[in-house]
Write a structure and sequence with these properties.
Layout (H helix, E strand, L loop, with lengths): L7 H10 L5 E5 L14 E6 L12 E2 L12 E7 L8 H11 E12 L1 H8 L12 H10 L8 E2 L2 H6 L3 H13 L7 E7 L2
Parallel strand pairs: 1-2, 1-4, 2-3, 4-5
Antiparallel strand pairs: 5-7, 6-7
Bound molecules: S-adenosylmethionine.
S-adenosylmethionine (SAM) binds next to strand 2.
Length: 192
């Protein structure tokens, strides 16, 4: 079993944006650890067939840059810590846009630019993307997502990863000290 971390705030964000009976596709699904938190959805996972993160065969063993799925067939598509690794992420984003139904939701859980830049200094990861929120949003709009449907929801991690009593205090102290509130860059997009 490939141990992967399941982040409670990612679960909460997913449950906030995914409705029961939604048809959902997780890109770069690895061990599909978020599937069990979406029990009422029709969940499908997509990952590279050779991925070392995969425990069971993905429903779609392929690259997200070329997905064998019907046009306008999913209500929600998301991916956690995957898009920055894709060889041609713009192609992936166009594929996600194509595969979403009108009104469908796309959630990118990626890392903040400061962390991506650190990752890129490792010689195994020189190919990774180092986008920030505005570049990532721009790439999503070039893939078809309209700008008024794009939201930077990274702050939802800040909102959810502490118990409510200490949340405001911790957030304020971190901001005062100039510390990152979290390492996540999370962009929500809608297909109009
Ligand atoms: C860091 S792991 C994250 C796995 C899982 N999402 C998680 O949160 O634990 C990145 C995943 O993205 C997958 N991946 C990388 N490039 C991909 C591509 N072009 N298409 C689909 N999946 C890809 C990898 O195979 C790997 O399973």
């Amino acid at each position: 079993m490939n141990q992967q971390i399941t982040y409670p705030y990612i679960v909460k964000i997913l449950q906030n944006y995914i409705s029961p009976n939604d048809k959902v596709l997780e890109i770069g699904c690895g061990a599909k650890q978020y599937r069990e938190y979406l029990p009422k959805s029709e969940y499908y996972g997509l990952d590279l067939p050779q991925s070392s993160y995969v425990d069971e065969a993905p429903d779609y063993p392929c690259s997200a840059e070329d997905m064998p799925v019907e046009n306008e067939s999913f209500d929600c598509i998301f991916g956690v810590a995957t898009f920055y690794l894709h060889g041609d992420p713009d192609r992936t984003f166009r594929e996600c846009y194509r595969a979403l139904k009108p009104g469908g939701r796309f959630i990118v859980f990626d890392y903040k630019q400061s962390l991506l830049k650190k990752i890129k200094t490792d010689k195994r990861y020189t190919h990774v993307q180092t986008w920030g929120a505005s570049e990532l949003s721009n790439r999503l709009s070039l893939a078809g997502f309209s700008e008024d449907g794009l939201q930077n929801i990274s702050g939802m991690v800040d909102y959810w990863d502490y118990p409510s009593a200490v949340r405001l205090l911790v957030r304020s102290i971190k901001r005062l000290l100039g510390l990152e509130v979290s390492n996540w860059l999370i962009i929500y997009a809608e297909k109009k």
